[in-house]
Amino acid sequence: MQLSEERIGDALLLKASGRIDRASVDTFKTALLPHLEQCKPGGHVIVLDLSAIDYISSLGFQVLLVAQRRAKAQYGSIAIAALQPGVKAIFEVANFASVIRCFESVRDAFAELSPSALASYTPRA
Amino acid sequence: MATPQIRQFDTGPEAFAQLRGFVEHCCADAGIDPRTIAVLLLICEELFENSVQHGYRDTPGGASEQHIWLTLTVSGEGIDAIYEDAAPAYDPFAKVSPPDYSGPAETWRVGGLGIPLVTRLTRDLRYEHTGKRNRILFSVPVDGAAS
Question: What is the ipTM score, two decimals?
Answer without folding.
Answer: 0.86
